[in-house]
Amino acid sequence: MSDTSHAGAGPSHRAVEIGTALAMIAFGALVIAGSLHVGIGWGAEGPKSGFFPFYLGVAIIAASAVNVVAAYGQDPRTIFAEWSQLASVLSVVIPTTIYVFAVPWAGIYVSSLILIAVFMVWLGRYRVGMAAAVSIGVTVATYLMFEKWFLVPLPKGPIEDWLGL
Questions:
Q1: Is 0.70 surpassed by the pTM of this model?
Q2: What is the pLDDT along the chain (165 residues), one digit of tens a residue?
Q3: Which residues, listed in sequence order, are joined to residue 46 by a DSSP beta bridge?
Q4: What is the DSSP letter of 110?
């Protein structure tokens, strides 16, 4: 490991590893709880629907526990990433999260059009005309591919309904 890994300010690699492992342990516990709710035993037709997810949850918890133990052996001064690097990641994660929550309300086509245009103008520094052309083109191509050629309906919102799509 180089000396630059200790130079900047940011969360330690060990703290991120432990935090991620603890989050995965919580996820594994949630999987196990859901599996127990639907049943993990054997029925007349074979394993109940919670059988495989239960053991998957157990494996997730076991692997995450190993990661927690391994993380305690790491140097606590080694940083995972500098705060400015994490801010760059959040500049993509936050709009994408908003996009995911907007799709059920606005439809996938309008949401995708806005997301592509925003990313192109904000992060890519493209001009608005270029961003509009690309985002509209990608959205129309996606619509034609899924709705017309593959006959796979995707979530639509009020604007798609208004346009009769």
A1: no
A2: 444 455 568 899 999 999 999 999 999 999 999 999 999 988 888 888 999 999 999 999 999 999 999 999 888 889 999 999 999 999 999 999 999 999 999 999 999 999 999 999 999 999 999 999 999 999 999 999 999 999 988 888 888 888 877
A3: 43
A4: H
Question: Which residues is 42 bridged to in the sheet?
Answer: 47
Whether 50 and 35 have beta carbons less than 8 Å apart is answered as: yes
- Terminal alpha carbon distance of the chain: 55
Please tell me the total number of residues recorded for the chain in this structure.
165
Longest dimension (CA), the chain: 63
Tell me the residue type at 81.
A
Strand blocks (E) in 13-114 = 42-43, 46-47
Q: How many CB atoms lie within 10 A of CB 87?
A: 10
What is the SS3 string spanning 11-22?
A: CEHHHHHHHHHH
